[in-house]
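Amino acids appear as letters; backbone shape is given numerically. Here is one record.
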Amino acid sequence: MDKKTLGILELENRPISHFGALCAPETHQFPIKRLTVEGANVARLIAGDRSLKDAYVSGARKLESAGVSAITTNCGFSSLHQAEVAAAVSVPVVLSSLALVPLAARSMRWGRKVGILTYDSSKLAEHHFNAAGWSSKEIDVAIGGIEGSSTWRRLADPCPDAPPDLITSDVLAGVRALFKREPMIGALVLECAGFTLTTEIVRREIGLLVADFVTLAKMLIEVSPPRE
């Protein structure tokens, strides 16, 4: 292949495709190859349905066979399947932007917290962190979400109809609420792949490091070896 290609394992819910979103080809300066994971939807991922493991493994093997150089997903909650998917293929695999939390933590002054803005803070838990390679016992985090918002409801639809201005408004509201509650946040990680089109706006708003799925995508392509 002439250029390294990123494989994205996607939910059955149609991905957000606005510019800046992870699954929009024009967001990236490298090719992406998308594959829908059978049975994987927002409801099952958020609920922590581990029976989806085999579908994620199968999808990753298909992407590897198609020649991708690295694999990720479009849902941070899929971190639960990290170990099994990584073991099933020979290309680099990082399934969740939650894996960026240790990097964010090392960027801050001592005594600060890493903020995490997630699709649903009532469902994000320690086992997601552990599967992504870290523990809240070692890294102090503050978690906020957009649950109850219009974007939260729309992203759960089979074909989400969430315009960029709505997503941006709801993400900023979530960020502001989180920082009001936790003023000692020193860096922020966005869990949801649907949030990435807002990242630059959030960076300007808070004036801090903000990492997301697009950050992860760029890193994976940069560090992955080319495929023949």
In short: The domain at 97-212 is CATH 3.40.50.1860 (Rossmann fold).
